[in-house]
Give the backbone structure.
Amino acid sequence: MLYKLLRPILFLFDPECVHNILIYLLSLVPVRWILSLLYYYENPALEKTLLGITFKNPVGLAAGFDKNAKALLAWQALGFGFIEVGTVTPRPQFGNPKPRLFRLQKEKALVNCMGFNNDGVERVLERIQKAKPGLHIPVGLNIGKNKETPLEQAADDYVFCIKKANLYVDFFVVNISSPNTPELRRLQEPSYFKHLLECIKHVSQKPLFIKISPDIAQKDLEDMIHIAQELNIAGFVATNTMVVAQGGMSGAPLEEKSTALLKRLKELSKDLVLIGVGGIFSEHDALRKFNAGADLIELYTGFIFQGPSLISRIHRSNKKP
């Protein structure tokens, strides 16, 4: 109810500015305490263990929301079962020029052309280390390449991030599907993809997930699954944003496409762990993801439009996903 009153006011202002202010407020201890009282819900029946990692519940925060790990304890207080930080790159980068985040209220969508703006992997890991003593849910790190790194050397950037983060996170998500970094999606092509996975598999001490595009061609999808199984990759995050003229679109328009791809992934890769993300605005949307084959789900745009109560509503409606 509180968020429904605040949302019309928040939506009057620039989306990125509002986002940054909210991240700052969420980093404050009194705010976390209040949020926990208002929204936290725990049910032991929701707990599940995958890949040796225990998740208190299967609902996580998607990458991009707290990319610099500034409010980790707040997400735990709200009832998320895990957090995906990032995308981070080896070196800090500003990203694309502003404005680069657009809110489409009628469509219940966001369009972003952020361009992997982040503080760099080392600074982000410092924040994760600082939060760890009070953090009791898994943290995944979404990793990418710096904009100026040539495609032929992209693997070096991913390897760098993994080596730095091995001791501090629970799993990695390899982002090769953002539409906002030039040529990045070419890393989904079989030749680039296999080389990249061979490089990072050699250095990673934690489970590896691949975040894929909802626009991926069927043949490329089949090739990626085959290579992932061959190299014992943990699973996939399905999906990233879909390509539009201004950048990448997330939210309600993505739901059907991302769920269909998730279902196809499940059919082709029954032994891989799948994280479903894209267009989850309700308990029904979450259930569709689970029924399509998701072991875990993540929220982003739906969380912005529906507010923190969405988390506990999903928990209460899915006693045992």
